[in-house]
Design goal:
Blueprint (H helix, E strand, L loop, with lengths): L3 E7 L6 H9 L6 E8 L5 H6 L6 E6 L4 H11 L4 E4 L5 E2 L3 H11 L3 E11 L5 E6 L8 H7 L8 E4 H7 L1 E3 L2 E3 L9 H12 L3 E13 L9 H16 L3 H25 L3 H14 L3 H4 L1 H16 L2 H31 L1
């Protein structure tokens, strides 16, 4: 049995970290080590981690340097042939590692195996919707504007894939770009797709529970846009044709994503501004993904024009319809996989 190294960066997640670690302990695949990287967390997160009595768990401490640096520290200490990342506020279902290893062991050209993710709220309750994306034949352009992996808790990666893209910074081996504090995962997946021959491929099961956290890093829209510009500039330096063709779509999809975030926290004017910027940047998003784009536009304006109680009811109906459609799609894909 091949060992998996699970890496959890820890910073201000005392409300959630206990459940995250417990979800690793509950895995059906048990040949793992868990590296908890304390990124200078000022709260009780590390104290909570120290309460778990399991020899496979190690706590590594560093001064606060960001999630990329924490993941890099974990990778440098890893003993496993496979590397899995779990953010401190997310969860895994028990078969997560087992199913990814089966996928990787049966697909020798696949270097990154990712799962679907189900959204949960801050209390851990299901929101009934999922992150769905294309699972196979994933091109670099698709990574750039859709990020099929979806979040940092979804992939399991062969160690040799990460070794193939590493570079040296301040005399340390780096895998994730420590200058990025948002969408650093997209930049890493892009390098894998562009600089290696390894394939990135998904499995249909929703094995990651992704927490929609109002205080999470992904909620800072301005910083995300700045990080996207940095990713585009960096990728342009070695793949200029890709960026020339896909820069505007990538920005538009990111703006639409941020508009949906703004809608969720009821930032009305910001939501409308962001969805308008998305359309102005790449109007073709209207026919590339008409349903999602029109729903985002409608939700932004309903938040502005309608009483909050009515908007909430409409939002709940839309989420229920979307969730049911997504569940049917997942079940269909799982059925095809079994044939």
């Amino acid at each position: 049995m091949k060992k998996v190294t699970v890496i959890i960066p820890v910073y201000k997640v005392e409300k959630y970290i206990g459940a995250a670690v417990a979800s690793v302990l509950a895995q059906t695949y048990q040949n793992w080590e868990l590296l908890i990287v304390d990124d200078g967390s000022p709260d009780a997160s590390v104290t909570i981690c120290q309460q778990f009595d399991d020899a496979r768990i190690k706590i590594i401490q560093q001064s606060n340097s960001g999630v990329s640096a924490a993941r890099n520290t974990g990778i440098r200490h890893a003993q496993g042939e496979y590397i899995a990342f779990l953010d401190g506020d997310d969860l895994w279902l028990p078969q997560k590692l087992e199913k990814h290893l089966a996928h990787l062991e049966s697909s020798f050209r696949v270097g990154v195996s990712f799962s679907r993710s189900a959204f949960i709220d801050e209390s851990g309750s299901s929101l009934g919707i999922y992150q769905l994306s294309q699972l196979k034949a994933i091109a670099p352009s698709y990574i750039l504007y859709r990020n099929p992996i979806g979040n940092g808790s979804a992939p399991v990666i062969r160690r040799e894939v990460l070794e193939a893209i590493k570079y040296t910074h301040n005399r340390n081996d780096c895998y994730f770009d420590e200058q990025l504090h948002h969408i650093e995962d997209v930049e890493c997946w892009l390098r894998i797709a562009l600089q290696t021959s390894w394939q990135i491929e998904g499995i249909p099961d929703a094995l990651t529970l992704y927490r929609v956290n109002s205080k999470g890093a992904s909620t800072n829209g301005l910083q995300q846009l700045e990080s996207l510009e940095k990713v585009l500039a960096k990728t342009r330096s070695y793949a200029p044709e890709l960026i020339a063709q896909w820069e505007r779509p990538a920005k538009a999809y990111q703006l639409r994503f941020l508009a949906r975030r703004a809608i969720r926290i009821q930032a009305t004017s910001k939501a409308i501004q962001l969805v308008h910027r998305a359309l102005a940047t790449h109007w073709q998003i209207l026919w590339e993904e008409p349903r999602r784009t029109f729903l985002t536009l409608a939700a932004a304006y309903s938040l502005w024009l309608l009483p909050n109680s009515i908007h909430k009811k409409m939002e709940a109906v839309a989420l229920k319809i979307t969730g049911n459609s997504q569940k049917r799609r997942i079940l269909q894909e799982q059925s095809r996989q079994l044939v």
